[in-house]
Amino acid sequence: MSADGLRAAEQKMRSAGQSEEAIRSFRSAYERLTRGRPTVLRTADLERAGEVATFAGLPAADPAKSLARVAVIKLNGGLATTMGLQQPKSLVEAREGRSFLDIIIGQTLALRRRHGIRLPLVLMNSEATRADTAQALARHPELDGSQRLPADFMQSMVPKLDARSREPISWPSNPALEWSPPGHGDVYAALRGSGMLAALLERGFEHAMISNSDNLGATVDPRIAEFIAGERIPFVMEVVEGTESERKGGHIARRRADGQLVLRESAQTPPDDEQSFRDYRRWRYYNTNNLWLDLRALAEMLDRRDGALELPLIVNNKTVDPRDPDSPAVVQLESAMGAAIESFPGARVLCVPRTRFVPVKTTDDLLVMRSDIYRLTDEMLVEPLPERAANLPYVELDKRFYRILDAFEARFPSGPPSLREAQRLVVRGDVTFEPNVVIRGSVELAADEPRRIAAGTVLSG
Q1: pLDDT > 70? residue 321
Q2: Which of 55, 63, 227, 461 can pair with 222 through a Cys bridge, CB separation 3.0 to 4.6 Å?
């Protein structure tokens, strides 16, 4: 182990104002990296999770009672870089002129009004998202009325490490590139280090639902809250049944050695197990990143472990400037928050319908979210048409022309085409859609030159 590298990294984190919890988490990851401890989960060491509880099997619950001591935590540290933007992803328009954050706030306020509950909404921000998000929150003063908690807490930053020396990289031309987020597994140490965990417990909150801000299906449900409280479950992960589209998402398995549930991500899969990793029929259950926690159980575990959960290490090999492949090679140490399932004895998984898992990662996903497949209710729920809930269309747009949000919107100047009768839409080339275009069945478009689809056109395959 490079003792000098670790000391330099810890000093750099302290100088940047990072919490001691964040530093201890980084130290654990660094030591495991340099000691060569395995970072992979082999198929031979795993077995299927077996049968699990289902959302459909949960009994009805009284929302006023079951949600009285629940808090909502949304991960809000990411920028919309995959869409070519340097702004918080949650501030991108989701549909009908409202951003993801607008809709999340609307959902929270609707539940408060209907059931007379406190239901705080807390964001985990990053340095990159905090200022812009604060401006957006200022447009919703009604959110603060009964919250009496800080609106956010900060995820930590960790130094990128020189791939050879394992020392913190120096990049004077852009010092911000010397840092990286440690993955959303940082949420546990960040909750404690920021004081947010203590504040929630002091105000009588016992459970929290954590989810990504780009997944508008991740709403607080009283039946799940009652399930976790009634059976005294310390940790519940919502999962969905796998489909052919599962390529990178983490799956749940049971470790043969001790029977403990674990999460295996693609980055933790050795090359000779890649075919097994993609076998969605075998592994069956896939992580949604919708997690429910017993806050006191979390606090007690963090106290026992000096403020840091030792989550499975994910090692990302990149360049210090991700846009410059010739810049120095670095190592980024990360973890996934779902991996904490193996830290909690008695953790459970709950199989939920796909309507609770609609993440928007690309403009392909955004086209479906903005289309007539979905509707926005008075209580700001984003609901699919009943007949399409389990059968969303497959969309693949040519990245050369649609990946960047501005270019995507320029090619749909009047909004998405109708997709309610679509099964598949693949566009290769530069195609602009005029108003009221309808897609039926499976449609593939190819254009060697820029092309326009006339208003009112019905395309079918």
Answers
A1: yes
A2: 63
**Residue range(s) in the chain whose domain bears CATH number 2.160.10.10:** 363-460
Instruction: Work out the mean pLDDT of the chain and round it to a whole number.
Output: 94
CB 64 within 8 A of CB 115: yes
Select from 134, 158, 135 the least CA-distant residue to 330: 158
Separation in Å, CA 268 to CA 40, 111, 288, 458? 4, 38, 17, 45
Q: Please tell me the distance from the alpha carbon of residue 247 to that of residue 24, in angstroms, as a whole number.
A: 33
Superfamily (CATH H level) for 363-460: Hexapeptide repeat proteins (2.160.10.10)
Burial of 286 (0-12, 13-18, 19+ CB in 10 A): buried
* pLDDT tier at 86, thresholds 50, 70, 90: confident
Convert 92-110 into a string of H (helix), E (strand) and C (coil): CEEECCEEHHHHHHHHHHH
Distance CA 392, CA 387 (A): 9
CA 353 to chain centre: 17
The DSSP line for 398-428 is -HHHHSSHHHHHHTSTT-PPEEEEEEEEEEE
How far apart are alpha carbons 445 and 407 in whole angstroms?
A: 18
Which residue out of 89, 160, 248, 361 is catalytically annotated? Answer: 361
Confidence of residue 15 (pLDDT cuts 50, 70, 90): very high
What are the residue ranges of CATH 3.90.550.10 in the chain?
3-356
Q: Is 318 a catalytic residue?
A: no
What is the homologous superfamily of the domain 3-356 according to CATH? Answer: Spore Coat Polysaccharide Biosynthesis Protein SpsA; Chain A (3.90.550.10)
Average pLDDT over residues 99-110: 97
Give pTM, 2 decimals.
0.94
Contact 142, 90 (CB under 8 A): no
Q: Where do we find the tokens 């904490």? A: 340
